[in-house]
Amino acid sequence: MIVISGATGTIGREVVRLLAARGTPFRALTRTPPPPRTSPPHTSTGAHVRGDHTDPASLDAAFAGASTLFLLGPGTDVMPAYDRALLDAAERAGTTRVVKLSVMPVGPVTELHRPGEERTTTFPEWTVLRPGLFASNSLQWAPLIAAGEPVPNPLGDVELGVVDPRDVAEVAVAALTGDHHGRTYTLTGPELLSAPAQAAILATVLNRPVSTADVPLHALPPALAEAVAAVRTGAGSITTTDVPEVLGRPARTYATWARDRYPRP
Length: 265
Description:
Elements: E1 2-4, H1 10-22, E2 26-30, E3 46-50, H2 56-63, E4 68-71, H3 79-93, E5 97-101, H4 109-120, E6 125-131, H5 142-146, E7 151-153, H6 165-177, E8 183-187, H7 195-206, E9 212-214, H8 222-232, H9 242-247, H10 254-261
Parallel strand pairs: 1-2, 1-4, 2-3, 4-5, 5-6, 6-8, 7-9
Helix pairs in contact: 1-6, 2-3, 3-4, 7-10
Region (Disordered): 26-54
Organism: Saccharothrix xinjiangensis
Domain NAD(P)-binding: 6-177
């Protein structure tokens, strides 16, 4: 039995879908009461169950009999407490395998993930996933593109190994169900792209102009400015072969993601 946290987010939803398609038993944690039995993602092998990181009893019930945890916490200051609570529950239940979704170690968000990463590596079987920038982050541009307005670009010409969230989810499922013990994977797409380069690809895919407008650091909220400044150093400007090595196929390009997933105005 696999417990999936963060099951309603971009990666979590895809992990749920992939596990359901494989017929792999899972429990998807949610803080709200489970939806009706007729609502997705209930399947013959998986369902939503209540699990609140501030309620140990709810976690103990969710982890009963579970061998594996997919640990995907909220990207906020509560992350260390969230990770600790779920890993404590996993330990109490005798869970032996943990796959932790972290981030590429660039910027202040890294520190939120560090305690969970370190604790994850104490389990008998562990894998840490460190993806780069999600292709799906550019979905926030959709309203501006539809209105014919430029999309904001605080990163300038910095190039990042933009990764398709579907590839991240597939690697997660491979780690949850296969032998990837003791590995830390840095997950990127096959090419480095700046925000203007992504906009140019979207312009081709959508067959309409897509432009960018530079945003200075001082115009950003302080926390965001700190994160952007770290990325601007170029520390995250890498591509790796981890996705193709795990999945046995090339990583999807940003253009492929955009053709498949970007909403048409």
